[in-house]
Amino acid sequence: MNFEPTETHRMIRETARKFAQEKLAPGSMERDEREEFPSAALKELGSLGFMGMMVPEQYGGIGLDTISYAIAVEEVSKVDASMGVIMSVNNSLVCFGINRYGNDDQKDRYLRDLASGMKLGAFALSEPEAGSDASNQHTLAKKMGHAYILNGTKNWITNGSTADVVLVMAATDRPKGPKGISTFIVERGTPGFTVARKERKLGIRSSDTVSLSFQDCRVPAANRIGGEGEGFTFAMKTLEGGRIGIAAQAVGIAQASLDASVKYARERRAFDRPIADLQAIQFKIAEMATGIEAARMLMFRAAALKDAGQPFGPEAAMAKLFASRIAVQSALEAIQIHGGYGYVREYLVERYLRDAKITEIYEGTSEIQRIVIARSLLK
Ligand code: COS
After folding, report:
1. Which among 70, 196, 349, 374 could bridge 334 via Cys, Cβ 3.0 to 4.6 Å?
2. Residue 233 CB neighbour total at 10 angstroms
3. Ligand 1 centroid, distance to 225 Cα (angstroms)
4. Which of 126, 135, 208, 362 to mutate to test the pocket of ligand 1 (most atoms within 8 A of CB)?
5. What is the DSSP letter of 99?
6. Distance, CA 133 to ligand 1 centroid (Å)?
7. 232 touches ligand 1 (CB under 6 Å)
8. Is the CB of 372 within 6 Å of ligand 1?
9. What's residue 1's pLDDT?
10. pLDDT, tens digit (0-9, with 9 covering 90-100), for 70-122
């Protein structure tokens, strides 16, 4: 057991922190306010290699481990949680999904541009009637010669309207349930594939969340990832890694809440002294710091298991379940410490709460994480 970060991990934290401070912090409030996608900053993040951190160098990535990736998502999310999820989806769902389960031709065609930030990816599993009940896929993919014809709607798709490449789960044999689902790589511009609606959200407002519509959308059979019927397992396995990314996003938001609280507590005076001298404030800060450290440890543990090639699904679920709760609690406490100032938009802590809440919902709600954890213990 080694709790020391490597030289590479330190360097990644430093690079991500510098990038976030210099390139993301200015304008993050305005982007949130205007619900504006961070296109320019995203290109710069790509040029650092942070959009394909775990993609092998052979395919244009920087070939780093999951721990490095989690560190980078944490640092980015500390400053801009919208960018955190944009980056997380591209890295751990799209790039990882293609790299781990795609064939050589698919890796060759898609990974380079996705890893460099030239192109952006999205992951389309959820549907109006398939959120937590993910195997209840109504989007159909019918085989016609050397292609599949896709029909259906996908909901809550992060990066959806900006993505160049979308991994779409669809039923190739609906009566077979989870065993009748397949995954397809669908390119933007394919006839029949349109963005149906943009969501207006509570938080992570500068990330893009949309519904996608497929109407007689013809996708070459060469774009199916894995065999027919392997799509549900693909989605579940890929989401396991995605949950480490969301845990990292949550840790980042929680840490930002703590940092803001410590700063404010030292500056704000009440009863003739800084409020940092009050035990009521000290106890809150101590609880926040302890929870964040524990969440970070769970995140690193899941990442380390993944890097060691060991099963890590329940550990990733624990990390996400705990870190997302800590993010919400930390943001709430940060607002309480800031008092009235915490409730207004002049300070960032109200945004931390709005951004934190989604980490308990997407890539599997907290209830789903509990199911995953309990099943692993009771099977
Ligand atoms: N790895 C590999 N295989 C898995 C798996 C995993 N993590 N989870 C499930 N499977 C397999 C099961 O083993 C089963 O195959 P067998 O019958 O051969 O054993 C098959 O998939 C169906 O699994 P199960 O019966 O458990 O499916 P359920 O419909 O009960 O759903 C949950 C399981 C609820 C865990 C799943 O639907 C889920 O994770 N839902 C949340 C989805 C999600 O995160 N959505 C967010 C979208 S991205 S924003």
Report:
1. 349
2. 15
3. 18
4. 135
5. H
6. 9
7. yes
8. yes
9. 85
10. 999 999 999 999 999 999 999 999 999 999 999 999 999 999 999 999 999 99
For ligand 1, whether the C-beta of 181 sits within 6 Å is no
Three-class DSSP category at 169: strand
- Give the residue from 120, 154, 173 where a domain finishes: 120
Bridge pairing between strands 181-187 and 193-198? unpaired
Does any ligand 1 atom lie closer than 6 A to the CB of residue 150?
no
Q: If you measure from the C-alpha of residue 372 to the centroid of ligand 1, how many angstroms do you get, rounded to a whole number?
A: 9
Do 144 and 178 have their domain in common? yes
Out of 86, 103, 120, a domain closes at: 120
| Cα distances (Å, whole numbers) of residue 169 to 22, 134, 313 | 38, 10, 20
Candidate from 123, 136, 236, 373 with most ligand 1 atoms within 8 A of CB, to mutate: 236
- Amino acid type, 64: L
Segment 187-201, tens digit of pLDDT: 999 999 999 999 999
What is the residue with the minimal CA distance to atom 3 of ligand 1?
233
Choose one of 233, 240, 244, 321 to mutate for the ligand 1 pocket test, by most ligand atoms within 8 angstroms of C-beta.
Answer: 233
CATH number, residue 305:
1.20.140.10
Name the domain count of the chain. Answer: 3
- Identify whether residues 210 and 267 lie together within a single domain: no
d(CA 304, CA 318): 14
Give the integer Cα–Cα distance in Å for 88 and 71.
Answer: 11
Q: Which of 288, 34, 237 is nearest to 123 (CA)?
A: 237
Residue 265 inside a domain? The answer is yes
Pick the atom of ligand 1 nearest to 123's CA.
48
Split the chain (379 residues) into runs of 10 and give each run's mean pLDDT.
94 98 97 97 97 97 98 98 98 98 98 97 97 97 98 98 97 98 98 96 98 98 98 98 98 99 98 98 98 98 98 98 99 98 96 98 98 97
Ligand 1 near 125 CB (within 6 A): yes
Do 49 and 132 reside in the same domain of the chain? Answer: no
3-class SS at 343? helix
The total of other beta-carbon atoms located within 10 Å of residue 96's CB is 24
Domain limits at 77? Answer: 7-120
